[in-house]
Every structure is written in structure tokens, then in C-alpha cells.
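User: Please predict structures.

Assistant: First:
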Amino acid sequence: MSKNLPTPLFPTTRREFLQLSGRGIGLLAFSRFAPAFLVNSALASTPLPEKDRPILVLVQLAGGNDGLNTLVPFEDSNYYRLRPTLGLAKDKVLRLSDTHGLHPSCAAMSSLFHEGKLAIVQNVGYPNPNRSHFRSTEIWETASSSSEFLADGWIGRFMDNACAGQPADTHDPVGIHISNGVPQSFLSAHDHPTFGLVPGAGNRRENEENRRLLESLVNQPGAAENDNATFLKHTLMDSLVTEKKVQQVLGSYQPATPYPGNSFAASLRNIAALIASGLPTRVYFVSLSGFDTHSNQANQQANLLTTLSTGLAAFQKDLELHRLDGQVATMTFSEFGRRPSENQSRGTDHGTAAPLFVMGSRIKGGLHGTAPDLNLAHNQDLTFSTDFRSVYATMLDRWLNCPSAAVLGSKFNDLPIV
């Protein structure tokens, strides 16, 4: 913030605080309900987060990643019939089995697969799929059915069930997101300390400007004149404490391996730094955008998959060299796949199912689930074979040690990936 700008007014509503938070102002510990320091929630007495507990890192592939050119069915003639120009040549694919291989840009992920550290769940989707970016993302982030609308996210409900009882005087977040807004996944019925970083954060000048902005807001006289203002001022004070702590961690971290020079890899490097610092955070969220490939898909997706593959591999290696890999699992998701048929612009339109990746040293690698049936007419969609909530249930039950039915509303079959 320039020195010539006036000191911003103290926010008097949660909406105003959200607008400030969108500028990268750290802690976003707000909700639709009164905060814990005003009203004691009647939550189950579950243990506090511990520094050695399992951690889940969520990677959003925003825009709808094309699954068929990511996990390629190179022995299926229907694949080449539906994609006469976009179909990847059999001799270019990185083979994982006798029938399937990864896009040639995914060499680093292919190595992880052959080391047994990468599970690929095939043909993941949900019944009655929605092709709207907004609505389908909402379905994935809230773990709803296509016909219901939920106010809280599946990670928020995990926090409600497994992260209760955090002392009011602690500033350590249970969830951290590196994104341009609060993920819907994080919305919850009860308050939990969460923290937000803008992608690419780490610039010293920007961090200093954020700190000064927070200090100016917190120190404004007469700001806390009612319960709502008191809540917001308390939140900003928490934010200032957490902002300073996080920036100190990020500034002093020494990665054990080089990271690629892009924003996505920088975000993963920051997550590794925060994990190495011993924060009790259970869930991290990062997003890689640009997958809405309606035209000229080949080069665009190749570049994105290179970014994804090299970033994930560097992150995994860094965790391993710091001996932190045993407590971290990384999972991708995307709002939908693309249609099997290419379009006239050498791209693909909004579709339904796609593969989902789970990475980690304690993950049971390999191909899981059933490959999609490509005996389809032009512009016909894939029929999913694995419900995405089965993947969520597996990570909740077997990784995060939280009963999945309490989060997802019903029981879904676990998968043998953990």
C-alpha cells in the first residue's frame, strides 16, 4: 500500500472484511455464526490437532481438466476415432500399463507412479452431472449431490467434526489456502482459525504493506464499538499475529530440492515450509487454473500438465528429504472432465468424469477403479464409474481418521488407495 494512500476505515461488516481479505490480508477466520470467543459452540469433545497428525493437501485443477489426454487409453481405437487430431500417439505416451499411459508432459508424475507413490483413480464423477463451472465446482467442494445445495464445504464439516476445541488464544490455523478467495470447501457451521495467502505471496514489499495495513486497522481508536466490530477487530488482531508468523516461516525456509520457477510451484514450496514449521494445520488448499481448453488444447494442456507434474514431484521430494512425507497426502480434483469428442476448434467442451490423483509415500499407488467406456457417439459424455465422494470418504476414514458419514451425510465405499 502506497504511503500516499489514506489509512483504510475499520471494516464494520463481515462483507467489508472479506473485501480486505481478498487483497491478501491473511487470516480469514470468519463465519455466518458468532465466533467462539463470544459464544461457546456445543461441539463434540475431540482431541486438538497435533503436529504429527496426517495432513491433506488439496490441489484444484480449475477449469475442468481433460482426463482422456491426461490418462490416455492408447489401446482403445475409439479414443482415436473421437479425437482424430487431439489423440496422443501411442509411441509418445508414458506407459503405466498395457493399455494406459500418462501425457508426455507428465514424466515426473510417471516416475512417482512407478515408485508406488501415485494412485490414479479412473473415471471419477457423480450422478446427473452438471456442466456449469460454478455449480459443478460447488458440488465437488461441498460434496453434495447434483440436486442439493449445501452452505458448508466438506473440509469445513471435517473441521466441525475433528478440529473442535481449539483454544481461543491460539492463532495457529487448522486450514490454510493459497488462492484468490476462500475455497467453498473451507466454509463451516462453526468457527475455525483458517489462513489465506494470495498465490505468489512472498514478495517482501507486499508482505510489509499487508502487515502495515493490518496494524493500522487494529490500532484505529474507537473501532470496536459493538459486538460485530469487536469480532472483526479480534479477527484482524489474530490475522496480524498469524501473518507475522507465517511470513517469518516462509522467509527462512530452505527447500531440500529446487522447485520450478512458477507460481504453482512457489505455492507448494510455501506449503512445505509451513508443514516443516510444525504448524498443527490439517488441510492445505492450492489451485492451478487454466484447464478450460475449448480451443487449441494441445499446447495449453501440455504446459499445464508440465507445471502440475514438476510441481508435485518437487513438493514430494522436498517432503521426503525433510522426512515429512509420511504424514502428507496430496489429492487433485477438477470440476469435470472434457467431452470424449474433440470440437471443431481442436479443443474439448465441458464433460463429466475424469481421473483423480492421490500422491504420497503411504499411498497405495497404481491404477484404481474402472476405465471409461469409449464406445460412444459423437458428443456423447462419459458415464462415471467411481463417485468422487468415495475418494473423499477414503481420505476421511483412512487418512484423516474422521468418520466420513458425519461429513458426507451418508456412507460411501472406501477405495484401496490408503
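Second:
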Amino acid sequence: MKGKILDMNIITGILTAVLLLILSSTACNSPADPGSSPNPPGNIIAWFNGLGNNVDLYFPASDSLVQGAYITGEVPNDILSPEQGLMVVLSSLDARIQVFETDSTGSEYFSVQLPSGSNPYLMSWDGEHLWVTLLLTSQVARVDLVPGGGVELFDLRGNPTSIASTGQRVFVGNASWPDPSVTGGITVLDASTGDSLGSVQTPDNVIFLKYFESTGMVHAVTTTYTGDGLISILDPVSMEITAQVPTGGSPGQPVECGGGFVAGGGWASGSLYFYGESGVLEDEWDTGHLSAAGVVCLGDTAYVTDPTKNVVFVADCEGRSLLDTLTAGASGPQGITSVSP
């Protein structure tokens, strides 16, 4: 009888230990140190901290967070995932493109140097090349994204900021600064030759461009930061604007979310703007945050950077509710992307 009681105690102890192990491994937002061990499986949400010069990784499947997973160049300005398991960070001050393999944290895979002092601003991946706007030299760079890859430069109008490529054509948005003589518009280039194919007239200050392969349309975000935010829907073949969505505010980079599109309210607003390509603003949801600088979605779940509070908040777009808050590993979380494993 005593032996059976002892066996039950041992079993109870083992079950308790297993339960504690499960709870500790799935504890909400447990920060971890970067290292060479493999990352958890599943999709990755990655964002750069603009004032900390590093990247944080969040793994939704295991609800685990790695702060400071990678070190970036000075003043990171954009982030994207060109293909499965890879992530690219563009840093403006040291004009460098860094490529990271996301199966583990730590060092970069390789980097590509851009012209010094060019202030690379934003980038777009077309399946073959990485396109980068060079704000201070009025150029765009076409980059072979491989170790030792070449960089080809193309001259164009001043203030090139935003960029989107369909694979055949490249759309470059012109801002209203630093050259005040250039007010806006979109320059269209042939992706194979870099030759100009014409331009598209838009409101002033094109700050973001995004090509959506699912619909075949380009979305252009314009704002002069006076509450006049507008998203123009552009047919990349005819190079004509088919609809415009007046959001107000100063919206950021648009992304697909669920069955539609959403853009954050930018640095000055925590709102999320939900819209369709017909030109209708379906909803403006005030999340209660001070800023919604960058947004990425997995299904109906949005991950939104708030640099004013140094957090990334998680939102249910369908139910318009906040689900979680992730603490950034350094100051100024801004650009954000998702990486497929």
C-alpha cells in the first residue's frame, strides 16, 4: 500500500513539473536573449526600433518575444521580407541594406552598401530585385539581393521617397521635401531598363506606395500632415487613378487585413483606417493609442507599432478590440513586417 502511495506521489510530481514546463514555455511575451539556437516555429512578426538600432522578433504560435534579435545600421528606415525565412532592413545614415536569416537570431547573413550620403529611404521587392529610393541623390537603386550583388542607379525627379514594383513597372512617389520645388506625383519606370514611362499626377507629398498582387492595384498615400490624408487606387497598366479614399489624418503604409485593407494613423494618431478599392472609407477605429506608425496583419489580427509608448499592440480587426501589448526591446518601434518560416 505504501508503495502505491509513493508511486502516485512520483506521478503527481512529474505531472506538476511537466505543467510548470508548459506554462513557462508559453508564458505571455517572455523576453529572451538572442542566440544561435533555432527560433520557434511558425510565422514571425518583426519590427525595427528606430532609436535603438535593432530588431525585435515575436512568434505568435508560441507567444514568445526576442528583444534585440539583430543589430541594424544607423537610423533604420524600412523593413520587409522578400521571401520565406529572410528579412531585409534598410538603414539611412550608413546607407546599408542588411539581410538576416530568421531561423536563428544574432548576426546578419550579408549586406549591400549603397552610395554614401544618399539617405536610402524606402524599398520594394519585385521577386527578382530590391528597389530602393535614394532621397538625397534623386535616384533609385536596383539591387541584386545576393551576397556580393550589384547595385544599378537610375536618375529621376527630386525627393524620391516611396516605391512599389509590380515586376514590370516601378512606381516612385515624390515627396514635398527636402527640395520644395518638387511637390509630389508618381514617376513610372520600366523595371527592366529603368527608362521613364511617364508620370501620374497625385495630390502633394506621396509618402507611401504599395502594390497588392492579390488585386493588381497600387495604393498611393498622400498627406501634407494637415489632416488631408488620401489613399489613391492606381491601375499600374493604364497608369490611371480609379478611386480615392479620403481618410483624413496622416495615414501610414497600407496593408491587407482580412478581406480588405487597413492603414495606421501614422505618428500623430492611433486610429486604424479600414477601406476598399472602390474608394469607400469603411471605418476609422480609434484604438486609444497615441500612434499607429506601422501595421502588419496575419488574417484578421493586426500588429501595430506605437513609438510614443515603445510598444507593439495587437488588435482584432474584425471585432475592433485590443488583444495584447508587446514591449519593444528599445526605443521607437516603427516599421514592421511578417516573415513566413
